[in-house]
Amino acid sequence: MNIFETLYNEFIGFFGIGGIIEMVKKNDYSSLTTWAGIQNLIYPIIPLLLLIEVVRAIVYKRFKIEDYKLSFMVFVLNRFISRFISIAAVGFCIGLFEQWAIFKTDITWYWLLYGYVIWEFAHFVYHFLAHKVRILWCLHSTHHAPQQMNLFVNFAHFFLEAPYADVIRTSICIILGVSPPLLFLIMFIDGLWGSFIHVGENIIKNGRLGFLGKFLLTPSHHRVHHARNPLYMDTNFCNLLNIWDKVFKTYQDEKSEIKIEYGITRKINQNNILDAYFGEIVCLWKDIVKAPGIKNKLLYIIMPPGWSHTGHHQTAKIARTGYLSEQDKNVKNDEGSADQLQPGQSFS
Questions:
Q1: Beta-carbon-side half-sphere exposure of residue 196 (alpha carbons within 13 Å)
Q2: How confident is the model at residue 216, as a pLDDT?
Q3: pLDDT above 50: residue 347
Q4: What are the backbone dihedrals phi and psi of residue 241, each rounded to the nearest 5 degrees, phi first?
Q5: CA triplet 318, 268, 196: central angle to 5 degrees?
Q6: Which among 169, 262, 253 has a CA at the least distance from the CA of 218?
Q7: 143 touches 280 (CB < 8 A)
Q8: Cβ distance 262 to 153 under 8 Å?
């Protein structure tokens, strides 16, 4: 296989148009009446939106190569490292846990609703742990490293994160009765929506999606999730239904008066893919080496990012709590100042 054929196959694979090309070559469109044929039409939607996003940015002179560079380099690196690990993890978990399922479901509208609620819970568990357990944050932080939001961020992941995520999500779903066919349908829908919520402002300026934001996790919600602002950190862990964020009180709307600052709190070199890919692992290793005693070394692995054996913690929870306390204090001070005004007086 020569380099041009390789590049052609990568192009076809990235844009998901292999199935469409095959139908056109054979001049046989009968597969469009099947689920596989419908999938062939749906797969190219997100790559097409990404292309439109880039073109619009260029046309309106808002395109910056650095906004896409880091995510693109991570995507390319992952193509070389691994392609099938996540699929193997899903298959392993289905084979291991299907016999322990509490009951069996089928592909009907009511079981789809049940399955999606369970899937969303499983996704919440994986995503919450990815932010609250430092060794798992080392895998997840690559996805949060880009300092702008666009559809290419969806492709920026540490190669081991998908297998770990799918082990948790698949295991919970299978045990709670979500059948493999139903699970694969849900994973397809969720993957499509999970890509869409990374859409940048060049496509959708206001990502709140109107009334849909009441029960769906929108691009606006996910922009909040990718922010490093103290109010926004460690919120909106769901993917499509925001039910579990509301149940576990991690739900946060985007505030128009707070400009989102994307990225992670650690300063990274946006031109250095190794820093984005391995930087958190290096920082964890340094903390483990410096920590006194086995207990503290182990705690650095399982405690939240920002935890310190010295007691001077700088976790996202502490930063958010401190911000909210400061806001409450400011509100009380403003109310106190207003109460002290005499009739006819006003602030200068």
A1: 18
A2: 95
A3: no
A4: -90, 125
A5: 80
A6: 253
A7: no
A8: no
